Amino acid sequence: MGDCVPKRGPALPGRPRPLEPGGFRFRRRRGREWKSPLERRAVCGKPAVPCWSAPGGLCTEQSTMPFLHGFRRIIFEYQPLVDELLGLLVMPDRERQSSLESPACLGSDRSQLSAVRRVLERETHSPFYQEGVSYALLKVTELGLVPAAEILLEFGADLSFEDPVTYYTPLHIAVLRNQPDMVELLVHHGADINRRDRIHESSPLDLASEEPERLPCLRRLLQLGADVNAADKNGKTALLHALASSDGVQIHNTESIRLLLEGGADVRATTKDGDTVFTSIIFLLGEMACSNTEEAQVINRFCFRVTQLLLAHGANPSECPAPESLTHLCFKSFKCHFPLLRFLLESGAAYNCSLHGPSCWSGFHIVFECLCSHLSVSEDDSFSTDLIQKGQTLLELMMASSQAIQLPSNFEVNTSSCRYHGEKVRTLFCSLKQLERSPQALKHLCRVFIRQRLKPWPVDVKIKALPLPDRLKWYLLIDHAAAGHEDL
């Protein structure tokens, strides 16, 4: 006789390979290959049972994987009970009678619920009742029928029952369908709020954080006590899920990220692959180069807002290694990311590697490298003036972070590569070295002192509120675009 086995997906350590949704592969024996479970049933007179082979060749028992035979039981045993229960609750749209995705009416009145009770009482001792009522709970959860779900739970529906195709539990499905009231019902009846599905290792909070539409479920899960810092086997937390799921154009999980941070999400979370809270932002900023102007602006606004949230909760954008440092990326492309880099420096971000210091990378070095690189390809005066002004602003922001100007050791700049305006770059470098060797001017010391006293960062709004003349405010803000600043 032929046995049917599921298509093999990637094996999990110490577990049978998971079933791919809807997929069967039938072992050929005696020159015959069954095309479907129904054909095998018709010919052999018995249902086609998925056979799960463990690494040792023995069939895995139901005691270790309780619902592995879900396909057979849905098709041949408990599907009629599920259909009868749903038929009492759901009145499908006439134009889409074969689909429960968009029902015209979801029944929850007393007569319908009473009918459901009568069916459950009648079938309580029937074979596969437990599987039938548990699978019905999955479907009722998907539709958001809270009163019906309460009855199914009263009659013994299993909260840990897994969908035979996706292996999601009712709580996972409630989150995916954005049913916050159902989420609360299931948790109050004992559903494991932090349970991970066996395929993707996603918790309900992970799933809720991946789509802006699931924000109500995310808020409800946090209120119910979900572990905001629980991580999967790769170290990925709900916060990292929310960041990785945002594309900056169509999917903006800004509000989800804010809720997770306010709920205590750890901004230092790192996966086994080294991904941090800034990895996705760095990726999206790189995508701006391939985007049209409108998309680039949307991505930039999203990255700026998320960076503000992360820094407000203590994230360090200057960590090592350099490819994972948002500050390093912004320095390397300060022409494109000047507003974001200015915000980082205004917020107190280190302009050197926060772990190894300037020996690893230094903002001073990178600024002059970029100036020489860009000024070697363009002699446009307006372009060069704007670029040098931005470079000068960044240098002053770095110097204003401490009273003593500390440049990297053996810091030199080779302007020979600058085909245009090399003299301007050289003058800027020489003035910087002179400031390092000379006693600091009183106005510089005052600026550093006032900015330090106005912490926590950022200080721009606080400076603008000071009872000072505008010219002094512009000096404290390090705003070269302000009128009259050059006269100070």
From TrEMBL:
It holds the Pfam family Ank_4. Pathway: Protein modification; protein ubiquitination. CDD domains: SOCS_ASB6 (cd03725). ANK repeats lie at residues 166-198, 200-233. The keyword RNA-binding does not apply. One of its GO terms (biological process) is intracellular signal transduction. The keyword Protein transport does not apply. Residues 1-24 are annotated as: Disordered. Residues 8-24 have a biased composition (Low complexity). Keywords: ANK repeat. Coiled coil: none annotated. It comes from the Eukaryota. Residues 427-476 form the SOCS box domain. This is Ankyrin repeat and SOCS box protein 6 isoform X1.
